Amino acid sequence: MRWLRPFSLATAAGLYLIVLMGALVTKTGSEDGCGNTWPFCNGEIFPTYATVETVIEYSHRIVSALVGLMVVILAVWAWRRFRKDGIVRFLAVSGVFFIVFQGLLGAAAVVWGQSDAVMALHFGFSLLSFASVALLAVYISQAGRTEDLRLRTVPVSRRLSCAIWGLAVYTYLVVYTGAYVRHTGAMMGCGNSWPLCGEHFLPDFFTQAGIQLLHRYASGLCLIFTAWLLWAIIRLYREHPGRYRDLYKAGWAALWLLILQALSGAAVVFTNVQLILALLHATFVCAYFTALCYLCMRVGLPWKEEGQPERIGDPAASFR
């Protein structure tokens, strides 16, 4: 545990860097910086001629390969350390699977080309890989504070558990619409109008204004659902503050991260897509989705019997 915890945190940070670099590649139009060759750049290990787009694209590939190796090492290491823990095994396998799959999807796009809809999935799989490794790092950190090296699920009603899982799934779909906005170049589809879209009220799915407006409506519903979820968690927390403290903190974190994500999106519109603000937008999305996945991990699967903890530990140990 002495070296596993910092290595897991470093790997999660590396995956976050990949997400940002991927967004940077899209924002700067560097997808073709290395031509249609992969994994090398224009068929060369060390490109003899490099433009800014080449540097951005090739550095993204190199960092992705190095971090991918770190993910594999972390998965094997964590699996051996927590041999009988199903959550660790699931997160380890998920991290490796999604980092490999998104890499292959990116390679296919370079060599054969892909539609904007398919390329939007590239960001989605990167997000799933980041969330898996980030949760694994949190889990390892929490386990280091307990004697049993395992954590228990927090007993909640099946209705609340389904709501948390449902919001996580819905959020992933909303993230996909955001990635589709980016890949279709629809960031300024509504001009400098926000939160409405000028004279447009209903998305038409074909124009840039419709694509942008669809994402805004979906994000607005996500904010409403998140606020309702936090209200439900607060009710539980007031009755049993010790048991639900980490759910309470994670719920508040999710709401504030989503608000910041919305504000950063508005700032992108008002400033005509400034690069730093766009990267902040992606940052808040990653953190928000990971917070929701953490809630899913703590309440367990919806079909599990209520009130029967599967693991031993202190549910209030996190988010301190």
TrEMBL record:
Superkingdom as given in the UniProt entry: Bacteria
UniProt keyword annotation of Transmembrane present: yes
Chain ranges passing through the membrane: 7-25, 62-79, 91-113, 119-140, 160-179, 217-238, 250-270, 276-297
Pathway membership, UniProt: Porphyrin-containing compound metabolism
Primary location recorded for the protein, binned into one broad class: membrane
Keyword Disulfide bond: yes
One Pfam family from the record: COX15-CtaA
GO cellular component terms, semicolon-separated: membrane
Protein topology in the membrane: Multi-pass membrane protein
Compartments, record wording: Membrane
Biological process according to GO: heme A biosynthetic process
Keywords annotated in UniProt: Cell membrane, Disulfide bond, Heme biosynthesis, Iron, Membrane, Metal-binding, Oxidoreductase, Transmembrane, Transmembrane helix
Gene Ontology terms for molecular function: metal ion binding; oxidoreductase activity
PANTHER family recorded: HEME A SYNTHASE
Name this polypeptide is given: Cytochrome c oxidase assembly protein subunit 15
Organism: Planifilum fulgidum
Lineage: Bacteria, Bacillati, Bacillota, Bacilli, Bacillales
